[in-house]
Amino acid sequence: MRHQIFFMFLQHLYLQNFRNYSSQSVAFNASKTILLGDNAQGKSNLLEAVELLATLKSHRTSRDRDLIQAGTSTGHIKARLKRELGLSELNLVLRDGGRRAAMLNGETFKRQQDFLGNLNAVQFSSLDLDLVRGGPGGRRLWIDTLLTQLEPVYAYILQQYNQVLKQRNSFIKQQTSAADGQRFELARIDATQMAIWDAQLATAGTRVIRRDRGFCKD
Ligand SMILES: Nc1ncnc2c1ncn2[C@@H]1O[C@H](COP(=O)(O)OP(=O)(O)O)[C@@H](O)[C@H]1O
Ligand SMILES: [Mg+2]
After folding, report:
1. Closest C-alpha to 78, from 33, 43, 26, 40
2. Is 19's C-beta closer than 6 angstroms to any atom of ligand 1?
3. Distance 169 CA to ligand 1 centre (A)
4. Domain 8-123: what homologous superfamily?
5. Considering the chain, what is the average pLDDT of its residues?
């Protein structure tokens, strides 16, 4: 499997009621940009906005309320991207207590996951040494984030796997808790049902592994 990485350049970013920015327009004209600023001026907030467009997630918070400027109810992150097929406009609307809206060229995506893959970004920091030094959990998460951008379908594959894993675990829990204090007594688990869950987990897991392998080869 080959991932084709097309040309992409973030030309322009516009933030409205996002973190400490009330209304901020930023044009990226050069091939490299260095953000310099005092502490708490909003450097990380700006990168966080790009991260949100790339992954629909922030590594700092899972609550949109934190992202929206204090005292306001709706935040906007807009971007103009240059790709070889032309320009595209991305727009992410964050609402306090409401659903997000993700748009490409003015059209709202029904499934927000379809928004992924438009803006590609990779984040590095001194903490990324943990990728090498740290445990496998962190590495997995990093690869997952990257893969989800390159191949949005991976988000579904991963979601399916996690769902089967959760259901299989709760099946085991339910079966073993019936055995009054004797946890993990395998003999009491319905073998036929267990085999079904194992098979499903294996199928979903194989899909995840296949994607990862393809990615690591590239
Ligand atoms: N939801 C928010 N509303 C208003 N200000 C915020 C919000 N979230 C964070 N801030 C402010 O953003 C600033 C931190 O910005 P940050 O980008 O982390 O700074 P740095 O330039 O040091 O990376 C702080 O002053 C903080 O109060
Ligand atoms: Mg910072």
Report:
1. 26
2. yes
3. 40
4. P-loop containing nucleotide triphosphate hydrolases (3.40.50.300)
5. 87
